[in-house]
TrEMBL record:
<keyword id="KW-0479">Metal-binding</keyword>
<dbReference type="InterPro" id="IPR004313">
    <property type="entry name" value="ARD"/>
</dbReference>
<feature type="binding site">
    <location>
        <position position="99"/>
    </location>
    <ligand>
        <name>Fe(2+)</name>
    </ligand>
</feature>
<keyword id="KW-0408">Iron</keyword>
<dbReference type="Pfam" id="PF03079">
    <property type="entry name" value="ARD"/>
</dbReference>
<feature type="binding site">
    <location>
        <position position="97"/>
    </location>
    <ligand>
        <name>Fe(2+)</name>
    </ligand>
</feature>
<feature type="binding site">
    <location>
        <position position="99"/>
    </location>
    <ligand>
        <name>Ni(2+)</name>
    </ligand>
</feature>
<feature type="binding site">
    <location>
        <position position="141"/>
    </location>
    <ligand>
        <name>Ni(2+)</name>
    </ligand>
</feature>
<keyword id="KW-0223">Dioxygenase</keyword>
<feature type="binding site">
    <location>
        <position position="97"/>
    </location>
    <ligand>
        <name>Ni(2+)</name>
    </ligand>
</feature>
<feature type="binding site">
    <location>
        <position position="103"/>
    </location>
    <ligand>
        <name>Ni(2+)</name>
    </ligand>
</feature>
<feature type="site" description="May play a role in metal incorporation in vivo">
    <location>
        <position position="96"/>
    </location>
</feature>
<comment type="similarity">
    <text>Belongs to the acireductone dioxygenase (ARD) family.</text>
</comment>
<comment type="function">
    <text>Catalyzes 2 different reactions between oxygene and the acireductone 1,2-dihydroxy-3-keto-5-methylthiopentene (DHK-MTPene) depending upon the metal bound in the active site. Fe-containing acireductone dioxygenase (Fe-ARD) produces formate and 2-keto-4-methylthiobutyrate (KMTB), the alpha-ketoacid precursor of methionine in the methionine recycle pathway. Ni-containing acireductone dioxygenase (Ni-ARD) produces methylthiopropionate, carbon monoxide and formate, and does not lie on the methionine recycle pathway.</text>
</comment>
<comment type="subunit">
    <text>Monomer.</text>
</comment>
<keyword id="KW-0533">Nickel</keyword>
<feature type="binding site">
    <location>
        <position position="141"/>
    </location>
    <ligand>
        <name>Fe(2+)</name>
    </ligand>
</feature>
Length: 186
């Protein structure tokens, strides 16, 4: 189940509010300029589907975002618990960072946790299958995929070479909850 927990940046133990309703999550995130949507595939996607098949299943929503926001490139990334570089890949984005372009990710399968540090609040967003999150450029955030990652995600980019993380050197991410592995991977 998708979830948004909002914390005071100085109180990582106790969220001030928790939302699991998609409309409530989208409303709260929209207040701080973050896009949160639900998408449905236009056709079934079989496990192990190619990048082209996954993109084709969501083509109308992808094209809409590309028109609205000027994104130039799209790809599909997937990671499983048995990936040999999972620990290195996880660590890569666990520290607070920003990007010079939006970070847009749609979860075709599995889940990931985006945590956004906006002003004096921390927005912890567990995204699951069907969720799209659009983190605006310059937003301080970190991403966790758990110790046993499982996700298939569509990413949209403005720069065809993709985005680069600009680390803030803050240790705030270390004080907030990490993502736990999903109970199931289906």
């Amino acid at each position: 189940m998708s979830r948004l927990r909002i914390f005071d940046a100085e109180q990582p133990q106790n969220p001030s509010s928790v939302h699991t309703d998609h409309a409530a999550i989208a409303r709260e995130l929209a207040k701080v300029g973050v896009r949160f949507e639900q998408w449905e595939a236009s056709q079934p996607i079989a496990p192990g589907a190619s990048q082209d098949q996954v993109i084709a299943a969501y083509r109308s929503d992808i094209d809409r975002l590309m028109r609205e926001e000027g994104y130039q490139a799209v790809d599909v990334i997937s990671l499983t618990p048995d990936h040999p570089d999972r620990a290195t890949l996880r660590k890569k984005f666990l520290s607070e960072h920003t990007h010079s372009e939006d970070e847009v990710r749609f979860f075709v399968a599995g889940a990931g946790q985006f945590t956004l540090h906006i002003q004096d609040k921390v927005y912890d967003v567990l995204c699951e299958q069907g969720d799209l999150i659009g983190v605006p450029d310059g937003t301080r955030h970190w991403f966790d995929m758990s110790e046993a990652p499982y996700f298939v995600a569509i990413r949209l980019f403005t720069n065809k070479e993709g985005w680069v993380a600009n680390f803030t050197s803050s240790d705030i991410a270390e004080r907030f909850p990490r993502m736990h592995p999903l109970a199931t991977t289906a």
